[in-house]
Amino acid sequence: MTSSIPIVAKPIIVGKPAIVVVDIQKNGFVSDPANERLPFMSDTAERFLRAKTVIDAARANNVPVIFIQEAHRDDMIDFGRELD
């Protein structure tokens, strides 16, 4: 069965956009601490700088930026549960 309903492209952003930034707080742009519980990715600094360009562009265009911090139990037993 073939549909005769045309496919219409929809806008990427509908309504009131916002940027949600996970785990990048003010200390995210400093060197990795020696006692970090989880190792950073080797290109963390570059990733954070790319994220900062998105954050700066959002702010320049009056798009709200929402910062959240993911937290895990001290024993890390829950690490990765968000992937389930």
What's the helix and strand layout?
Elements: E1 19-22, H1 44-60, E2 65-68
Parallel strand pairs: 1-2
Note down, in words, how this protein is organized:
The chain has 84 residues and is of the alpha+beta class. It has a domain at 14-31 and 40-72. The protein is 20% helix and 10% strand. The chain has 1 helix and 2 strands; from the N terminus they run E-H-E. Strands 1-2 form a two-stranded parallel ribbon. Helix 1 (44-60) links the parallel strand 1 and strand 2. The two termini are 36 Å apart.
What fraction, in percent, of the residue positions are helical? 10-25%
Overall pLDDT confidence: 77
Low-confidence parts: none
Q: What string, H for helix and E for strand, traces the elements in order?
A: EHE
The major beta sheet can be summarized as: 2 strands, parallel
| Tally of DSSP helical segments | 1
Number of strands: 2
Backbone CA Rg: 19 Å
Identify the overall geometry.
Answer: extended
Beta-strand residue fraction: 5-15%
Strand adjacency order, main sheet: 1-2
Straight-line N-to-C gap = 36 Å
Structural class designation: alpha+beta
Structure at a glance:
This protein is of the alpha+beta class and 84 residues long.
Structure keywords:
extended, 10% strand, alpha+beta, 2 strands, 84 residues
